[in-house]
Amino acid sequence: QVHLVESGGGLVQAGGSLRLSCVASGRTFISYVMGWFRQVPGKEREFVATINRIGSITRYADSVKGRFTISRDNAENTLYLQMNSLKPDDTAVYYCASGNGGIHSYREDAYDSWGQGTQVTVSS
Known about the structure:
Layout: E1 4-7, E2 10-13, E3 18-24, E4 33-39, E5 46-51, E6 58-60, E7 68-73, E8 78-83, E9 92-99, E10 111-114, E11 118-123
Parallel strand pairs: 2-11
Antiparallel strand pairs: 1-3, 3-8, 4-5, 4-9, 5-6, 7-8, 9-10, 9-11
């Protein structure tokens, strides 16, 4: 497993942007498929985006496609989520996760390490 720490959350107006970061411990970051998920109180955690080990393949939830961009810097052991054109419905706690991926990399059970989460609040 790997230790993950997210940062970059905050309060932003609708239409604004934020960039989330997730720093991973250890020297095996490139071994992992990485993902971003989000959760609103009272609801299940939902998939946002995933990226393969070398950053060449990405996948997004329909709700964020065209607005969010996932990327990674393997030299810096860091995962990013650039969020543009934010909407109030994007308000949630955002979690990064690492795992072995596979065809179900949009599912929570494809990941075995999770960060503590960072709050994103979008005001209307």
